[in-house]
From TrEMBL:
This is Unannotated protein. Transmembrane segments: none annotated. NCBIfam families: pseudouridine synthase (TIGR00093). It comes from freshwater metagenome. Belongs to the pseudouridine synthase RsuA family. It holds the Pfam family S4.
Amino acid sequence: MTESEPVERLQKVLARAGYGSRRHCETLIFDERVTIDGKLATIGDRVAPSEVRIEVDGILAPVAPGLVHYLLNKPPGVVTTAADPEGRPTILSLVPDEPRVFPVGRLDLMTEGLIILTNDGDLAQDLMHPSKGVEKEYLAQVHGDPTPASVRSLREGVALEDGMTAPAKVSRVSEGLLRITIHEGRNRQVRRMCDAVGHPVVRLVRTRIGGVGDATLKPGEYRELTVKEVTRLASALIQERPPVMVATPK
Ligand code: URA
């Protein structure tokens, strides 16, 4: 929160965040799809974006000034940490220095593919929280050609040293190539799952995070997430949140 943050028309704030033209944003407000701190917004409302909670269709709108969300295709051999004592390239060297962003979760040194970097602390924390269980999809090239029984084991859960894995979506794409979707975020999880069924990973690529994928980003390239993608990620969190337990009378 900044003392000097200007108060602006709601449709202007929404338009700047990527919700479409000001006219379109007025329609969103008119159609009762926008709330400010839980109350229905009306045409003419003015807000200081970082001091209120603005939701569109019940999903927090990423409207605070200066928030950035990047989608990077991490090449192999690049570390996910901010600095590396061994001097290896870091993912931060692949995105602009300002504003300062940080990776959401991590990929192993040799794992390739999509990773989000942001300065949006709330979203990052939610995406990384195991209870929010956002799906991550990987393509794993493995040694050998997994049998249907191995694929079934991976799907149902395999025993790792830190416990059984949760059920996963696993399919054999072609010889030695598996598509694996997990919603846990354990260390080296996909590699350890494949080891556990006797098919060590040769190459591992993350292809999707929640509803966000991009087959056109080349290794080392990044782009900003669209507001649709940010809200899709936020809505995945809400849908995947465990149901609230209600105590029933005895
Ligand atoms: N699973 C792995 O084994 N490595 C990663 O980098 C991500 C998921």
